[in-house]
Design a protein that fits this description.
Three copies of one chain form a homotrimer. Chain A has nine helices and no strands. With 209 residues, chain A is an all-alpha fold. The first copy, chain A, has one domain.
Chain lengths: 209, 209, 209
């Protein structure tokens, strides 16, 4: 199981770095900026989580995620025209959704195992793990953040993390199956949002003035 | 006394969440963004303070502040037209000023009791507690931050925190009365600024070019 | 040696505060905003480093850096027309480059001595120490960050930090000389970039769309 998580983590790191770089590439960023912003997209969320949890940043224990993210950034810079092909880009979006699902559930798990602010805080930390890196990238790149778009990205993650916390609380014996199911649920919702370009309905959006 | 602080804290959390949401509602934010940004406005400053102080985030010990903030955000979203009525909004601004006063003095207290970088750091942490959440919200919402406006908001807080540090240092026996007086001073100055729309005089502003 | 580092640190703090203030003065900032943003520019990078390293913020142990930064901010506000003279400003840019060199190498040193995520993390933390404060200032002031400009600022720092990590790893007996040489190398590269207005070549910049 740890093996599976490790490999999904690696794949998710690649996807986060690639989509992170593509999200800002059209603004004229130099290779160095791409390396920094791509790595921040990939590891920023987990770093924020670890800072709030007051445990060492995960990449200080195993630097493989940084190397993988750096490699993915260079690759994206060199082969940008490959990754911006519609079908490839779409594929990366799905993998990015899988990554967000994994990172979210991992964040809940880490907070839960540390007994950190049960039961609310684990959901917050799951969300931070999944979207924190993207928020940092957008802030540093001067882009509108995810919170101001009306994408269905953070909402599936939050729902999945909430359900997972309920499972951990009421059916701790099914935590393993629960984590898999919640990850799939997040991924499924996110995939539906990508596939049919679903967004938050107007009813739930404040009026601009 | 702790009871009083607790209830002012709850009221302040509500006011921060409400004014935090109203400050960005005109940009077309969805309900999820409102929940996240409202909660960040309400608890972000205290979280930054706790991270710098290297103590567990206050909401990991008692999650009541998060629930209160979430409730206030939903309420603001549903009843936006109520809260944007001039006299209600003005009333929220005053309560927000009271909240800033409380949070600032509480921040000084927490740093002082931990012997953290006396005597300068407690003032900094008081200021961080009071305005940190609003800064995070503005950054995430792509708004001009408080530091670039010329509002009299952070200045009263800083003055009050400075005086409180002086009292803690030279008249520790009056710390309780001192905290109440400094809170009132901050609230008074902020209220005057709201009432007469006072701003930083031009003399103290650099010229735009 | 510690004496020398201390004084370079003080000079670097002054330079960071001065250039930090000048970088945003043309946006019409009030004196309070200048104090906050100047201090953040000067001590923000080291603070981020200490938070990630999970050690107390350096200014909680010795507040001299904060006082020096505050003084430099007031001075810059009062004597803005002095500091914006081309030759004085240029001189501050060089000292700022020396500061970035010192802060970068100090950041590597601190992480290395704490055995933090060797060998990759020290480079990241050196970079964070050198440019973190400027990034925070730009975000708070609503300015385009360094990562989106194509300046040769972060790249010399990163190169120097990488070489220093190699020296610490393979020739630990020469760590003292190595730190001096890497600092000079960073300063030299940065000076060349200032002197001849060198920027990242177009080849390494993504196309804007």
């Amino acid at each position: 199981m740890d093996q599976i998580h490790f490999w999904i983590g690696i794949i998710a790191t690649v996807a986060f770095a690639v989509t992170g770089v593509l999200a800002i590439a059209d603004r004229g960023v130099d290779l160095f900026g791409i390396l920094v912003l791509g790595v921040i997209t990939a590891i920023g969320g987990g770093t924020l989580r670890d800072i709030i949890l007051d445990v060492p940043a995960f990449w200080s224990i195993s630097s493989v995620y940084i190397w993988v993210a750096l490699g993915a950034c260079v690759l994206t810079f060199v082969a940008e025209s490959f990754f911006t092909q519609p079908q490839i880009y779409r594929c990366m979006l799905y993998i990015d959704g899988l990554g967000a699902a994994l990172f979210g559930i991992q964040g809940v798990d880490k907070a839960w195992n540390l007994d950190f602010g049960l039961p609310v805080a684990p959901v917050i930390l799951g969300l931070v793990t999944a979207i924190g890196g993207g928020l940092l990238r957008d802030i540093l790149a001067g882009k509108k953040t995810l919170l101001m778009s009306h994408e269905l990205y953070a909402i599936p993650v939050t729902l999945g993390c909430c359900i997972y916390v309920l499972i951990l609380n009421f059916f701790p014996q099914y935590s393993l199956q629960g984590s898999a199911i919640c990850m799939l649920a997040i991924f499924g919702l996110r995939s539906a949002a990508i596939r049919w370009d679903l967004r938050v309905p107007k009813l739930f959006i404040t009026k601009t003035r």
